[in-house]
Amino acid sequence: MKKIDKYITEKVENTLQAFDGIERAKIKPFLYTRLQARLEKKAIQSIETGMLSPAFQRFAVIMIMTVIVFNIYTATRFFINSSTDASLSTSEQLFIEEYYPSTPTLYNISQTLSNP
Amino acid sequence: MLKTDHILVKRLKNGDEVAFRQLVNDFQDKVFNTCISLVKDADDADDLTQETFIEVYHSIHKFRADSRLSTWIYRIAVNKSLEHLRRLKRKKRTGILTWISSQDPEPAFQVSDFNHPGVLAEKREQAKILIMAIDKLPENQKIAFTLHKMEDLSYEEIAEIMKKSLSSVESLMHRAKINLRKDLSDYYNS
After folding, report:
1. Does domain B1-85 bear CATH number 2.170.130.10?
2. Predicted interface score ipTM higher than 0.90
3. Interface contact A32-B21, CB threshold 8 A
4. Nearest CB to A19: which of B29, B46, B127?
5. How far does the CA of residue A60 sit from the closest CA of chain B (Å)?
6. Domain B114-190 belongs to what architecture?
7. How confident is the model at residue A116 (pLDDT cuts 50, 70, 90)?
8. Is B163 helix (H, G, I), strand (E, B) or coil?
9. Nearest 10 degrees: CA dihedral of B148, B151, B157, B161?
10. Which residues does chain B have within 8 Å of residue A18's beta carbon, measured at their own beta carbons?
11. Considering only CA atoms, which of B7, B25, B9 is closest in space to residue B57?
């Protein structure tokens, strides 16, 4: 029994020393080249994910809303201005028609007839 | 922080590509060896080595002068490896659940019988058994034992990497050896 115990203890101690004299494992060559390719890929991905990020989406929505509001505001102002212009021209036209009639009135015709 | 570290870190912070290449050349085998010792797969370790350097590249501005550059890089490598192992564990758990629910003959994930490429030829079989026993250790004991035996790091360096006191690391190593002796005895007795 003692012999077996001694044998096992020896085995255990030998196994515990299995890493003695171990050499450092070497990585595959051209790590830096592979690393560079991966860094470039990550940079592109981060730009893409940046475009899809919630912050960017919020910013895009705000920008679109601002453009729409600005367009509505500009269009409204344009229509108000054009309608004001139209009313001015109508009043002017009335004024012209009243004081400078282009078509002869009955009074004009009778005047023309009495004084040939 | 060492003077050479200080100069290198300054150059890295300024985005010096030559400095980054130098850093990769200096540390690539150390990082790879740490990762392969923990994850036990050469391809995964290669991938994790790249991830470690990418993290170094992006976080160098966060590096503070209160620790050595090598310690900081080792810490990143260890953390990346642990994250990877946790991901695998989750995958394995999901794989087993899928297997149970679908009644497939085999689970989706199986543990490979890995042998470290740096182990001497005459010690290969014993190393395989030791690696299996190390796998059963609690996480902190596994890290301390692996860094000490595989990377030949001192207890002080391990304490710095693991952000623990020297006495904690000594205790971790002591408990790791006890657990390994017990597991190996059970293995040889069976």
Report:
1. no
2. no
3. yes
4. B127
5. 28
6. Orthogonal Bundle (1.10)
7. low
8. coil
9. -100
10. 119, 123, 126-127, 129-130
11. B9
